[in-house]
C-alpha cells in the first residue's frame, strides 16, 4: 500500500493536472488600464521562523515573484500554458524571517482581465502550528512604470520609476506614496480551466549574452548585427540622455530618466535579438550608447491542452 501511495505522489508531481477553478479569490488592480503592468505586494509579521512555507501563485498574465526582494521564480518571467491558467508552487521557507516579510508580484497583462493574481501561503511554524495566509487579504497594488502592448512590445518609462521613487524599492514593506491602493477582489467570473504546473527545465531562461557585433548607422538609427538569429532581449546602456527623451529598441519604447546611465531592456516580452536596431532622439548619436548586449533566451514551449 505504501508503494502505491508513493507511486501516485510521484505521478502527481510529474504530470500536469487539470481542474476547474473552485473558490478562488482573484485579485486585480482597479487603477490599471488594459495595457499597464502592475505591482502587487503584501506584508505580514512572523513571530517565529517557519518550518515549511509553500506559496501558490496563479495569473492569466505573465509575472515575476519576489519574497523580501529576492526573486523566487526560476524563470526570467512566468507565462501560462496555452488555453489555461497555471498554478505554480514555490518553497519560500528559507526566505522568510522573524519580523516583517513582504511578498511582491510584478504582473504583465495579456489582454484585460480581472484574473490578475491569486495566491495562498500554506506551511507550518517551527513550534508546530499551522501557517496560513489567505490570498485575498492585505494586498495593495499600483500601476507599474511599464506597459505591455497588444503588438507584443513594451513601453517603459524611466522617469516614473526614478524621479518619484528615488532609492525606494517598490518590493519593500512601505506604502510611502498614495498611489498604492487596496487590491480589489473579482466576483462573478465565468469558470476557467486551471492547470497545476511543474516547472519546465526550458522556461524563459537566459542562455548567454552576445556582445560582439558589426555596427552601422543610418540617420538616427544605429544597427548592431551580432551575426546570429537568436530570440531574446536587447539590453542597451546609454549615457548623457535627458529626462523624457525616447529611445526605441526593436519595438521597445523606452522613456529616458536622465541623470546617470539609462538602460533599456524588455521585461515580459522578447524580440529577434540577433540584430538590434536602436533609434535615438534628435541630437543624440552613437557616442551616447555605451554598451549593447543581445541576451539569448530559451523560450518556454507551452503544452497544448485538450478540451
Fold and architecture overview:
The longest helix has 13 residues, at 2-14. The protein is elongated, with a radius of gyration of 21 Å. The two termini are 33 Å apart. The relative contact order is 0.19. Helices cover 7% and strands 45% of the residues. The protein has helices at 2-14, 158-165, and strands spanning 17-20, 27-28, 36-46, 50-59, 62-67, 70-71, 85-91, 99-108, 118-125, 130-133, 140-148, 154-157, 181-182, 184-185, 193-196, 205-210, 214-218, 221-225, 231-238, 246-249, 252-255, 262-264, 271-272, 275-279, 289-298. A hairpin with a 4-residue loop joins strand 9 (118-125) and strand 10 (130-133). Strands 3, 5, 6, 8, 11, 12, 13, 17, 18, 20, 21 and 24 form a 12-stranded mixed beta sheet that branches. With 307 residues, the chain is mainly beta. It is built from 2 helices and 25 strands.
Beta strand count: 25
**Which shape, going by the Cα principal axes?**
elongated
How widely separated are the two ends?
33 Å
Radius of gyration: 21 Å
Helical fraction: under 10%
Strand content: 35-45%
Q: Which structural category do the helix and sheet elements fall into?
A: mainly beta
For the sheet with most strands, the description reads: 12 strands, mixed
Low-confidence stretches: 1-19, 162-167, 303-307
Number of helices: 2
The average pLDDT value, as a whole number, equals: 85
Order of helices and strands: HEEEEEEEEEEEEHEEEEEEEEEEEEE
